[in-house]
Amino acid sequence: MRIVIAEDDALLREGLALLLRAESLDVVATAADAGGFLDAIDAHKPDVAIVDVRMPPTHTDEGIVAAVEARRRQPGLAVLVLSAYVEQAFATELLAHGSSGLGYLLKERVGRVQEFLSALHRVADGGTAIDPDVVAQLLVRTRPDVQLDRLSPRERDVLALMAEGLGNAAIAERLFVTDGAVHKHIRSIFAKLELAPTDRADRRVTAVLHYLEDSDRRA
Amino acid sequence: MPTGEARADQGTADRWDVLARARATLDALEHLFSGLGTVVLALIALLLVIGTALTCLVGVGLLLVPFTLRGLRAIADRERARLSRWGGPELISPESVPSGPRAAIADRATRRELGWVGAHVTLGLVLSVVGITLPMYVVRNATFPFWWWSLPQDEAASMSMGLWPVRDLYGAIGVGLLSVAWLVIAMVILPGMARLQAWPGRRLLAPDPGTDLALRVAQLTATRAAALDAHASELRRIERSLHDGTQNRIVAVTVLVGAARRALARDPATAEDILGRAQDAAEQALAELRGVVRSILPPVLTDRSLADALTGLATACPVPCRIDADIPIRCAASVEATAYFVAAETLTNIAKHSQARHATVKVRRDDDRLSLQITDDGHGGAEERGGSGLVGIRRRIEAHDGTFMLDSPPGGPTTLTVSLPCGS
């Protein structure tokens, strides 16, 4: 897997590269700003880009803008965006054109190497990785949602993991249940939320995220 | 004995009354005396206005109009400041000076100022002269018995104002006693005269009641907005240094610790190196956190003075640095903090980039501004785009409504000049 890293903080950039190289992943280039990052994408045609949201000069959302531009230049490029704090607007902006091959994680998740690597692989394989905090923010509602309230606690757990982008097997592993049980929960969730059932993980993420955002707006 | 006590109280009250009256008389004298100063200024303004008006008839005066109007405003402002110092409501100067003769005629404030000039050079002059003459009479009469003999006879005789002939010492002592009468007259009428002299200024130099309030509101809104802005930009600065500095360091620590744990399982030898880096990152995080906390308000600034804080900076600076501070009155804490950080940041820049052998920090307080000048003999060529922290310095100064000037020709020397409103 060929990786380009864009992160303005030198220590963090080198730390990330060190971590990934130790896992025998191929970090082909690192960049300290959006311009350097796009040059590296053009030059190396990587499989995955890991991008920090806040970069010079304005330290606001350069990373998101650069990620969207990189995907425009190289369709199918998997992008994992790292953020210092959860900002639902960034996630929405990033996922505006589908969620396939996209990830949005808090920076500190990198420290949980096993989970970070599985998220990275998931994104590289065209899946989705949404930070649990983003999902949690979406699930915290200001007003009760009748359809969501119909879900059992177990189904809510499954819904959250599904929104993070996890596949059936990973959900089963996380919740210590069988694949079949997960399958059954998911069918029930889709029925209760009145969503069209689908087995493809990325479509599921989009459907679930849209549902949560819409109902958030309705609330 | 109740009646005795009451009488004693009465006596004390009278004595205090006399003392208070004496103090009021002295104050009034001071005001009449300083009023004479502005009478002279008003006279100059009057001559200027008349001269300009006359020369306007032949055309050339039109060129003088802006100068005259500015002069008139400056002189009226001086009277405003004088009357404001004396107590009562503060007299605020109108915002703008009218630009031409037509605007001046239309401008109510200018017309009122002209009215004041007229009143002050006539009534004001008479009151000042009489007010200053009265105490002179008191002194002259009181000392008369000591020098009466030196006067020609008929002149000495007139000193009693014709009440009695002054031919001997007794007559002279009689004149001396007249000073008491003069003193009483002075004490009775001087305070009233001073108030009367100030009256035209208080009426005519105050803004119209309507504009007064509008002006106050505008001023307060502007200062309040500036304060809020400064506050917000300060918070933004703190947030940014926490986010992009400290937080990133700590994230790096978790990333490296994560990597080290993986390495322990796979190849323990490499874990040592990674853990070393993690420790470095943690130490950097601590150092940056300390920096952020200090940058919020350095303790030395609140405990001691700006001069002491700057001396501390100079001692810590690797480039030999001289502090030349003359700040007799302290400024607002936020202004001092800004000056301190500008100096700290600039000295760091000098040490890092300039290769200077010597630096000087000069701080002065001129009226309501704090000026700061930092000079080094390094190779110059400093510019804001160099990422040398100059942008941050400018932002901090502008947040306080200050000015910032950088002069750094290639080859040096570099001079940074900053001026901040004191806010106190």
UniProtKB/TrEMBL annotation, chain A:
Entry keywords, A to Z: DNA-binding, Phosphoprotein, Transcription, Transcription regulation
One Pfam family hit: GerE
Highest taxon above the source species: Bacteria
Domain Response regulatory, residue spans: 2-122
Gene3D superfamilies found in the cross-reference section: 3.40.50.2300
Domain called HTH luxR-type: residue spans: 144-215
Residue numbers carrying 4-aspartylphosphate: 52
UniProt cross-references to SUPFAM superfamilies, sorted A to Z: C-terminal effector domain of the bipartite response regulators, CheY-like
Protein name: Response regulator
Organism: Sphaerisporangium corydalis
Species lineage: Bacteria, Bacillati, Actinomycetota, Actinomycetes, Streptosporangiales
UniProtKB/TrEMBL annotation, chain B:
EC main group: transferase
TM spans (from-to): 39-65, 114-138, 169-194
Histidine kinase/HSP90-like ATPase domain residues: 334-424
SMART domains the UniProt entry points to: HATPase_c
Keyword Coiled coil recorded: no
Pfam family, one: HisKA_3
Catalytic reactions of this protein: ATP + protein L-histidine = ADP + protein N-phospho-L-histidine
Protein name: histidine kinase
Organism: Sphaerisporangium corydalis
